[in-house]
Amino acid sequence: xxxxxGFTLIELLVVIAIIAVLMAILFPALNRAKEQGxxxxxxxxxxxxGLAWIVYSDENxxxxxxxEADEGNDGRCTTPTSGHHANERYWTGxxxxxxxxxxxxxxxxxxxxxxxxxxxxxxxxxxKMYRCPTGIRGEMRTYTGVDSMNGxxxxxxxxxxxxxxxxxxRTVLWVKRRTEIRVPGPTRRVVFIDEGRVTPDSYACxxxxxxxxxxxxxxxxxGTNVNFADGSADYWKWDAKETLEIGKMANPLHQFTPTTPExxxxxxxxxxxxxxxxxxxPVK
Length: 284
Known about the structure:
Number of helices: 4
Helix content: 25-40%
Structural class: alpha+beta
């Protein structure tokens, strides 16, 4: 009579061990592929936002949209009547809770209402495209405009405090019209960045000082997605270990001063992209 033979316990353990090794090898690769897909989706959102920004300018006599996000924690969007943004509706409404650094959030309905009330929404009427797929859960807007693109006219970087005017040589630091972006050209000036979380006003960056104002946000691996004034978008990878360490904090450090050459390279890259130049660059 023939006798059927099954797997021994040792053979089963060997098979399980092989499967475990294969899973350990494949899972990181699968996670990387998944993250690259989310990075691509985020970059597409920023491209669409950049194109909406351009169309807004085309339809408003070359004027660019008010780059600040409104503040007030009530899901509305107002139009300032005085100051640097007189009669310029904010690009998005007040969707940021006052305790956002500690994780506080407005309701989803208020956040969506704020986005829909913003000046840019008619040009990009899909609130889902205002957030990165890997943004903080519960936050509907994770993209932010930068100070220099008609953003917050912040004390410490403008002429009103005796620091710097709106133009240095042919480089316009504080841009109000799209045609002002000549030196350097629109392919090198940042408009929106992926912060991965909702924040108030606009992204702050020092011009005179060699330090970060808002922190370097680390997204999609070891960098972040950015949108340029020509409508394109790109993924930036940070070089310095200290930049990555600060950016990966739960509440990233503001007013951070680099300590390494690579750290200063990361900072200067952002400063040039926002302002068009460094303070000590040759005047053109």
